[in-house]
């Protein structure tokens, strides 16, 4: 009998692998994680259920009851808040802000990671520390600044940085650059220096080293940051409410105020509007989920 046709029979006295007994600590850990997951998902589930129920039914029977199911809240929310127009406003703000943030952050991160100079750590700390400053602390000076900075009429109807898309784009870029610089600089530091030495031998200048060598290798990190930045800038509510006054320019998150009544608020209608607003970010996250996880893992574990 050849060796290729021989099969190894399991030994009769071979020990069988036993499952580890459940310890109280492990049971407690799973119970804790389950409770955290339920607590995290409860507001989302509650909002979805509330959006599918009529206001008259919940007013008469309370939110703890079951019944009154309807899709009318979504139709009413879409028409009342004019989500179609405000979704486009969010696109005009989010897309340029994300692209500009990633470009500027990658330039700063490239300088920090590629060159060694005295203010290297100071520059990284400056950008990182900017994320620790509460945005509300800058409300008054930024508001006064935006009302004083002029813009051409073709860029802003108000001829000011205030009440313009450019104002929201700039303020989002300013507050988001610090985090992106921190992640990208750690990612770029892990790239082999031999690549840059070979590029210099081939005559590549600094711009070509940045654009043709570094940026293609940073695609996982850029995809992860793009997913986060789209979510954060798209969901931004504070600055749009403060730095804009024209209702037709509001992004979709701020347009949720249109669902509030003068004397009472239909919470079911607001829930339906909130679900509609959240759908684009969920779609983007699930489409870029693999790149998001891969990019954050590589960027956080190297440096």
Q: Explain this structure to me?
A:
This protein is mainly alpha-helical. Helices cover 65% and strands 0% of the residues. It contains 13 helices and no strands. It has helices spanning 24-51, 55-61, 72-80, 83-114, 120-130, 139-146, 165-189, 193-201, 206-217, 219-234, 238-243, 267-287, 289-301. Helix 3 crosses helix 12 (267-287), helix 4 (83-114) runs parallel beside helix 7 and helix 7 packs antiparallel against helix 10. The longest helix is centred in the first third of the chain and has 32 residues, at 83-114. It is globular and about 75 Å long.
Q: Outline of this structure?
A:
This protein has 303 residues and is an all-alpha fold.
Structural Rg? 27 Å
Percent range for helical residues? 55-70%
Order of helices and strands: HHHHHHHHHHHHH
Q: Structural class, please? A: mainly alpha
For this entry, give a set of tags.
single chain, 303 residues, mainly alpha, 65% helix, disordered C terminus
SSE layout:
Elements: H1 24-51, H2 55-61, H3 72-80, H4 83-114, H5 120-130, H6 139-146, H7 165-189, H8 193-201, H9 206-217, H10 219-234, H11 238-243, H12 267-287, H13 289-301
Helix pairs in contact: 1-12, 3-12, 4-7, 4-10, 5-7, 7-10, 7-13, 10-13
């Amino acid at each position: 009998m050849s060796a290729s046709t021989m099969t190894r029979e399991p030994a009769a006295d071979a020990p069988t692998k036993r499952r580890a007994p459940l310890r109280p600590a492990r049971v407690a850990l799973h119970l804790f994680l389950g409770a955290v997951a339920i607590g995290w998902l409860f507001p989302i589930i509650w909002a979805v259920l509330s959006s599918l129920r009529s206001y008259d039914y919940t007013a008469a029977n309370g939110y703890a009851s079951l019944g009154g199911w309807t899709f009318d809240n979504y139709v009413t929310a879409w028409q009342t808040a004019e989500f179609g127009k405000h979704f486009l406003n969010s696109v005009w703000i989010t897309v340029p802000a994300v692209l500009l943030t990633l470009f500027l952050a990658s330039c700063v991160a490239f300088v920090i990671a590629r060159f060694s100079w005295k203010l290297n750590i100071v520059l990284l700390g400056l950008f990182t520390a900017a994320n620790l400053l509460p945005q509300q602390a800058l409300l008054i000076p930024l508001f006064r600044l935006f009302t004083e900075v002029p813009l051409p009429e073709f860029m802003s109807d108000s001829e000011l940085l205030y009440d313009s898309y450019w104002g929201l784009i700039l303020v989002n870029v300013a507050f988001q650059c610090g985090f992106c610089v921190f992640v990208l600089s750690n990612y770029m530091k892990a790239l082999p220096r031999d690549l840059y030495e070979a590029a210099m031998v081939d005559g590549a200048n600094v711009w070509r080293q940045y654009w043709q060598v570094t940026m293609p290798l940073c695609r996982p990190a850029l995809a992860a940051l793009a997913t986060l930045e789209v979510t954060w800038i798209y969901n931004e509510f504070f600055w749009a409410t403060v730095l804009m006054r024209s209702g037709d320019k509001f992004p979709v998150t701020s347009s949720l105020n249109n669902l509030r009544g003068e004397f009472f608020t239909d919470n079911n209608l607001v829930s339906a509007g909130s679900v509609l607003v959240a759908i684009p970010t969920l779609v983007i996250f699930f489409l870029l989920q693999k790149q998001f996880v891969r990019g954050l893992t590589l960027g956080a574990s190297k440096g």
